[in-house]
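Batch manifest, entry 17 of 40.
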Amino acid sequence: MAGGKGVRLLPLTKYHPKILTSIHGKAFLHYILNLYKKHDVILSIGHQKEAIKDWCKENKVYVEYAEESEELGHSGAILNAQPLLSNVKMFAVVNGDTYHNIDIDDVKKGFLSDKEHMAMQIYATNKLTNKPDCSGVYILKQECFKYFRKGIHTDDILRCIPTTKVYLNNNYYLDIGTHAGLKLAKASKIL
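Output type: structure tokens
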């Protein structure tokens, strides 16, 4: 999920997308892609999408893009990626401003055979508050697509459909989409 305008990080994001914000001399996207090097990655892009595509091309990063022609919001962006996900039964969605130490493969085990739930919302320790909170990492099944709508946040939809919440007490996440989160990321050795 890398299509937002990054308004919480203004003025830093006025001239480049949030996911290209530099941390320790590298774009944040570099760290995100390192988390998922064993996986196929689809970047949902909208605002300043050409800058993201140029960065990927310059860095020889090959990913698929779900491009927004207009602002779709969180669940609208996921819905927009549906054609690229039609051959999978389950997929992960990760906010593009969230760094974490969650093993997606480990969390997914057993979820496909879970007949009661369509979605999994993953909670971990927020590095800013040191309290458990929604990490911005979701595991979704194909059935979720029929509930997604433009302009509605995924968290709001998950309150209305069968969703399991998984609390990972030994894992963390850091939202670099705020000045405080970005400052912590730059000052720490997390990334």
